[in-house]
Amino acid sequence: MAPSATTTVKTIKREIPYAWVGKDKRGNRVKGKSLAPDETVLRSELRRQGIAPSRIRKQSGSVGRGGKPKPEDIAVFARQLATMLAAGIPLVQAFEIVGNGNDKPAMQKLILDIKGDVEGGTSLHESLGRHPLYFDDLFVNLVEAGEQAGALEGLLDKIATYKEKTEALKKKVKKALFYPAAVLVVAIVVTVILLIFVIPQFESLFKGFGADLPAFTQMVINLSRFVQSDGIFIAMVLGGIGYAFMYFKKRSRRMREFLDRVALKFPIIGPILNKSAIARYARTLSTMFAAGVPLVEALDSVAGACGNIVYENAVLRMRDEVATGQRLQRAMESTGLFPNMVIQMIAVGEESGSLDSMSAKVATFYEAEVDNAVDSMSSLLEPLIMAILGVLVGGLVIAMYLPIFKLGSVV
Question: Can you give the pTM of this predicted structure?
Fold first, then answer.
């Protein structure tokens, strides 16, 4: 039983980040960062890769410092791998160069794990498919198409461009949503601090006035008492509601669909989300069609890439109609979600046999539209947010000074 126990301990041993320096087979000085259970394992792994380590230093911080791989890391990886393959470097060697040159240990481990699978005879798209958290179906399908067509570097370049543009679009939409939400949270926090710590000081001061307080001031004092006495209970209830909301949002597709539908109709934010979904639809369609993926199969990946369940369901209905012989233009018209300009450009692309280039032009146009809409919204929201802050904080200040003004007029 003892050997079995020892084996179990080894398999769960924590990996820690190391920085190393050494020389490759050509005698060139190389350096990098890697995750390993201990220094001995790392030395043997480096020697297996043809690197003679001269110095290995343990890094401070937790496993995979820098966090797990992000979508932008995957985009950079695709771009680097495409560049290596275009330069004539063999696939396994390209993985080794890209992996050892990555500064993020978690990303480096991911790349070297894929390299190990490829070395073992697994195809690249199958190796990527074993890591669905980082490589979605669209990525895997495009790589498979590139392998079958013998144009892997070209497809990887298209994937990198696609990931870069879609991530940039996501950041713009997040920026549009984050700014007002952050300011609103700050306003609420400041208001709560004033109600709990500042208003009670004024209340004790007003007790010696010997006169009735203005109605507005009394209302604020009553609100302060309520927050002080029941604030923890209110916070617990709000926290429970927030947790329940997130829990059911993750597990209920119907709820997510309802929220996405409401968000599309929301003032100011709605048009941005609509344009973002159209841009992602067009960009994904362009990338898939340019890779030679049949339209019906491409629409499967396009549906999941729209970022909105309303558009996802619409694209899946379009796929079914196209599969029965319907033109893409007619299928788009039947959804009622796409502007006439988008439908006409797709129709021109279908008739001229350039659906990929026309879709790319639609995507570029709507990406620029999202960028402009976010900038416009930010400039419109700034005075509105300042007004909200002024009403919340300024209202509390005025409520506290009203009795002092009243006392001054009596004197």
Answer: 0.67
